[in-house]
């Protein structure tokens, strides 16, 4: 189906979680502190600061991929990842997990418009499920995906393309990819999505989002339903 402007109707919306629909509030960095500490990296050291800068620059990427880059050896990467997940789970269990204002309502409106919604993440399935349970979001979307479900995480196109295949969407031009990081934008552009929207509620600012391919930059996810309705 096409609009009167010759653009295909968006049938599938692929949404990031932390920073886009879920408040991040520094939880990733706090959990990284635990991961680095488990590998003997002292907080405040030059090595720690360099690693933290890399974590910030690669927000949105699969966390195990980040730790493989930082620590090299697979055994060390797995230990760091396990420490990260435990720390993040503890923060979620302690109540440090909330939906961004208007996120649940935006998802409901997108589905009411007849669009399918898929929630994606760079976290593991265990962490993603922990967040969904804490928010009561187990049924909020048509599908949820983590990197292990798709083959590769961001910035590769796998998550968006897996969402397309699993929801039986007809064309990549019917897909919108939305996130708060440059890696989300790269995922969308590499997947061929016709809408690649960055939101300013998370890790990266408008300049980074546009540099990595954003077709739109929104103040928050709350603006997305109106944007898509107006196409």
UniProtKB/TrEMBL annotation:
<dbReference type="InterPro" id="IPR050155">
    <property type="entry name" value="HAD-like_hydrolase_sf"/>
</dbReference>
<dbReference type="InterPro" id="IPR022468">
    <property type="entry name" value="PhnX-like"/>
</dbReference>
<dbReference type="GO" id="GO:0005829">
    <property type="term" value="C:cytosol"/>
</dbReference>
<keyword id="KW-0378">Hydrolase</keyword>
<dbReference type="InterPro" id="IPR036412">
    <property type="entry name" value="HAD-like_sf"/>
</dbReference>
<dbReference type="GO" id="GO:0006281">
    <property type="term" value="P:DNA repair"/>
</dbReference>
<dbReference type="GO" id="GO:0008967">
    <property type="term" value="F:phosphoglycolate phosphatase activity"/>
</dbReference>
<dbReference type="InterPro" id="IPR023214">
    <property type="entry name" value="HAD_sf"/>
</dbReference>
<dbReference type="Pfam" id="PF00702">
    <property type="entry name" value="Hydrolase"/>
</dbReference>
<protein>
    <submittedName>
        <fullName>Phosphonatase-like hydrolase</fullName>
    </submittedName>
</protein>
